[in-house]
Amino acid sequence: MEEKMSSHVSPDPLKVSIDDLMRLNEQHQFAIDGAGVGLWDWHVQTGDAVFNERWAEIIGFTLEELQPVSIETWLQHAHPEDLEKSNAALDDHFSGLTDVYECEARMKHKSGDWVWVLDRGRVVEWDAAGKPVRMVGAHLDITDRKAFEAALAQSEIRYRELFNNMSSGVAVYKAVNDGDDFVFVDFNQAGERIDNVQKEGLIGKSVQQAFPGVKDFGLFAVFQRVWQTGVPEIHPISQYQDERLVGWRENYVYKLPSGEVVAVYDDITDRKQAQFALEQLTAELEDRVARRTRDLQTLVNAMAGREVRMADLKKVIRKLRAQLKAAGMEPVANDPYLEPFQGE
Length: 344
Hints:
The chain is an alpha+beta fold. It has twelve helices and ten strands.
């Protein structure tokens, strides 16, 4: 019995607990290292601080190079403008306005460049007077994200400048009720000028409400086809008309990856009016030429008839003169009626 009991000695609960804690700590450290998080532990009232190696790596140093570390290490490397934001966020957290302190800030890298960090933390210990004693948190390198955001913002600026300064009207629509209608989500300045409307009065409004003639115009059916198929279409030159607006338009319609439908269009009313005027002028000129041609032909025909009559008359005169000569008679000298026939 004693041997049997001695072979099944219960494990030491304390040892199991320590092993579990060590394993948990290893897993925790592995997760931190994998996430690239720089940890900080700040004793608020004394200024003492503890950082991990990753905290230093984010700004290009080893932890040893930064020793001795304290809150001053943060203050020396943080951008002065961002320190103001950080201090304001800390005050809000210390006063209980926020559950978590959070701030995006620039830090001076060893290379001289500025890197962006997302700084998050919370107070974990307070004194009897309700003042913060100890605070822990982490830095996450967000430099790439901030660069992307800056590039995106620049791209948005370029897009907006192009959008608002191009000569063609541009309208962006969102399909609603499974394509039964389309509402405005954007409208450029050229469109405002062409259609004599204000963007503010269109955004969120149905295209059928804003332009009641859109179905008769044929453009609404194009919207529906493009939205359903994703295949761009050109809506040929057509005249739009409602109680407020009349004009000739040419539209190019396509679908964005977001599902929104875009119409790029030009007002060609002036061109069509010039075309109509040219066609009218051409018709008038052609009519004038036709009438002049007819008049000229009549004159030519008349001239030809006169020549025929003159030729016949000359034949008669020659015959008469011959008869007179045969009879021993001569025409009266200098007879004005015979002058055209002298020498015949």
